[in-house]
From TrEMBL, chains A, B:
Presence of the UniProt keyword Lipid biosynthesis in the record: no
Keywords: Redox-active center
SUPFAM superfamilies in the record: Thioredoxin-like
Gene3D superfamilies the UniProt entry points to: Glutaredoxin
One Pfam family in the UniProt entry: Rdx
Organism: Halorubrum vacuolatum (Natronobacterium vacuolatum)
Protein name: Selenoprotein W-related protein
Length: 80, 80
């Protein structure tokens, strides 16, 4: 089963953004994913991983919740 | 480091409630916890675990976000 991680910079105040991603993934896939983990970090980090594979890194990608959800989709089982 | 799990019933529509708990824990403790995982489940489940220990189970406890945050606190490092 799929684990999605959203690692975000706590001192930068990125909780809202991380939370938006978690919600969007869970609303879209529900039990198609096993869990979405909000992982605390610092130093400006904002990375989304699916089963360990980076699907979004704010240093390389433009922030777009829908694009992140689309990037998760291929990792989700037939239940989605 | 501390892992908090919020396992919730997807078909029951408990995502909002699970999300509220995750946010409250992260707002309170930030990097004092390593991660808060929203774990998908069914069959009416709503359980919060801290490092594997159940601190809230809706079949036994009244739902109270503040009480859940207080139950997490002893598990959080000195950073909190």
């Amino acid at each position: 089963m799929t684990r999605v991680e959203v690692e975000y910079c706590v001192p930068c105040g990125m909780l809202n953004r991380a939370n938006d991603v978690a919600r969007a993934v869970l609303e879209q896939f529900g039990e198609g994913v096993e869990e979405v983990a909000l992982v605390t970090g610092d130093d400006g980090i904002f990375i989304v991983r699916v089963d360990g594979e980076v699907v979004f890194d704010k240093t390389e990608d433009d922030y777009d919740v829908d694009a992140i959800v689309r990037a998760v989709k291929p990792h989700v089982g037939a239940a989605a």
